[in-house]
Amino acid sequence: MDQLVEVGTSIKDYAFKITTDEELKLSDLRGKKVVLSFHPLAFTSVCATQMKDLEANYDKFKELNTEVLGISVDAMPSKKAWGEQLGVEKVLLVEDFWPHGGFAKKLGIFRENDGFSERANIILDEEGKVIFAKVYEIGTLPDVDELLEVIENQ
User: Fold this and answer.
1) Is 47 a catalytic residue?
2) 48: exposed, middle or buried (C-beta count within 10 Å: 0-12, 13-18, 19+)?
3) Is residue 83 part of a domain?
4) Is 115 a member of any domain?
5) Residue 39, class by beta-carbon neighbours within 10 Å (0-12 exposed, 13-18 middle, 19+ buried)?
6) What pTM did the predictor assign?
């Protein structure tokens, strides 16, 4: 793993494909906080629980003017099928498929030997600056309450 992006770093604009077959740019979300919730691979148990936890707390994030993105290297057809299977309808599932892991690499969380990202949460403020960045053990479920607390206190 390269160095994890540091708190205070401004993240350059980046364009993602989302499950509605549209493109989403980080700049489209300026004025809101953004949770970049990286999970290694779709159709795995901890990743599924991670996305379901975010979905279950979506209204709390919305009240805090925060958009949540679930990001992995999976291609969009896979992300779409997985999201439907999980019942994830509000959290935006986005792909970091091509260039493979390109966004994760920019943030220093791509696992070259595995071909996927770390399990990580990065929170951006309304201007796109990192206010929180944490990598978790690959089999560890991130704590949604920790994210909400960080957002509430910023």
Assistant:
1) yes
2) middle
3) yes
4) yes
5) buried
6) 0.96
Q: What is the pLDDT of residues 111-154, one digit of tens each?
A: 999 999 999 999 999 999 999 999 999 999 999 999 999 999 98
Do the strands 66-72 and 130-136 form a parallel or antiparallel pair, or are they unpaired?
unpaired
Domain span at 141: 15-152
Of 26, 34, 36, 47, the active-site residue reads: 47
For residue 73, what is the domain's CATH number? 3.40.30.10
Count the alpha carbons within 13 Å of 41 in the hemisphere toward its beta carbon. 9
CA-wise closest residue to 16 among 65, 59, 66, 79 = 79
Residue 23 placed within a domain: yes
